[in-house]
Amino acid sequence: MNKNAQLLIDQGKMLPLMEEFYTIQGEGYYTGTAAYFIRVGGCDVGCHWCDVKESWNAELHPATKTDLIVDNAKKHSDTIVVTGGEPLMYNMDYLTSKLQKEGLKTHIETSGAYTLTGKWDWICLSPKKNKLPLTEVYENANELKVIVYNKNDFLFAEKQASKVQKNCILYLQPEWSVEKKMTPLIVNYVMKNPKWKISLQTHKYLNIP
Ligand SMILES: C[S@@+](CC[C@H](N)C(=O)[O-])C[C@H]1O[C@@H](n2cnc3c(N)ncnc32)[C@H](O)[C@@H]1O
Ligand SMILES: Nc1nc2[nH]cc(C(=O)O)c2c(=O)[nH]1
Ligand code: SF4
Ligand SMILES: [Mg+2]
């Protein structure tokens, strides 16, 4: 990448853009709500079950002017979900201030493993064992969404829940490849531990992006 583009990326004025799409939020608190998704490339957390591994290598995704991303997003929805990849690998201050100036709601999907930048109307924190969230992200999360791949993940989920604020909404979401096996276990767990809710990847049942 040329020096100038790298400088603009460092300032958040350009971002490696993998894809953007208008769809229905499939997961968590806003499930069922229309939103425009901005998927930023680049992630080094390395979840073995990640459903967007194509996002990991930032160099495969074109550095795009943040102003253009915003001008496009505002045509589609009043709610913008920034995801990735891991969006917090980049400085989100410029993007979110521009989105909010346009009157748009800013939501983020994050592992919380990097410094919290940006002004967010909603933070979905999905912690990963390989690279745990930073304290500042636990403290500002509106929802905690723990992916359940095996039985040990219930214990991990409880540890993560002890780190977020009292009003943070707690979700357990089955990992997609074991969804048939883990969903009944999550259903049982939630009935026994009703501070938790179940979150399903409803867009995958609906066959939408
Ligand atoms: C692809 S990640 C991108 C944002 C950020 N890197 C993160 O992990 O939160 C978006 C959401 O999808 C979840 N996810 C990824 N792969 C999944 C899978 N195979 N099954 C269930 N959820 C998955 C993540 O935990 C996260 O909540
Ligand atoms: N419909 C839909 N909802 C989503 N919620 C979080 C997603 C993500 O990949 O971050 C996602 C996604 O990829 N599609
Ligand atoms: S942190 Fe998110 S994008 Fe990165 S590997 Fe894990 S699920 Fe995929
Ligand atoms: Mg997804």
TrEMBL record:
Enzyme kind, highest EC tier: lyase
Cofactor comment: Binds 1 [4Fe-4S] cluster. The cluster is coordinated with 3 cysteines and an exchangeable S-adenosyl-L-methionine. Binds 1 S-adenosyl-L-methionine per subunit.
Recorded metabolic or biological pathway in which this protein acts: Purine metabolism; 7-cyano-7-deazaguanine biosynthesis
Keyword annotations from UniProtKB, A to Z: 4Fe-4S, Iron, Iron-sulfur, Lyase, Magnesium, Metal-binding, Queuosine biosynthesis, S-adenosyl-L-methionine
E.C. code: 4.3.99.3
Any one Gene Ontology BP term: tRNA queuosine(34) biosynthetic process
Residues that, per the record, bind S-adenosyl-L-methionine: 49-51, 85, 126-128
GO molecular function, one term: magnesium ion binding
Cited Pfam families: Radical_SAM
UniProt keyword S-adenosyl-L-methionine present: yes
Substrates-to-products reaction catalysed: 6-carboxy-5,6,7,8-tetrahydropterin + H(+) = 7-carboxy-7-carbaguanine + NH4(+)
Binding of [4Fe-4S] cluster, residues: 43, 47, 50
Domain of life: Bacteria
Domain Radical SAM core: 30-209
Binding site for substrate: 24-26, 39, 83, 209
Cofactor: [4Fe-4S] cluster; S-adenosyl-L-methionine; Mg(2+)
PANTHER family: 7-CARBOXY-7-DEAZAGUANINE SYNTHASE
Similarity comment: family membership: Belongs to the radical SAM superfamily. 7-carboxy-7-deazaguanine synthase family.
Subunit details: Homodimer.
Function: Catalyzes the complex heterocyclic radical-mediated conversion of 6-carboxy-5,6,7,8-tetrahydropterin (CPH4) to 7-carboxy-7-deazaguanine (CDG), a step common to the biosynthetic pathways of all 7-deazapurine-containing compounds.
Name used for this protein in its record: 7-carboxy-7-deazaguanine synthase
Organism: Aureibaculum marinum
Classification lineage: Bacteria, Pseudomonadati, Bacteroidota, Flavobacteriia, Flavobacteriales
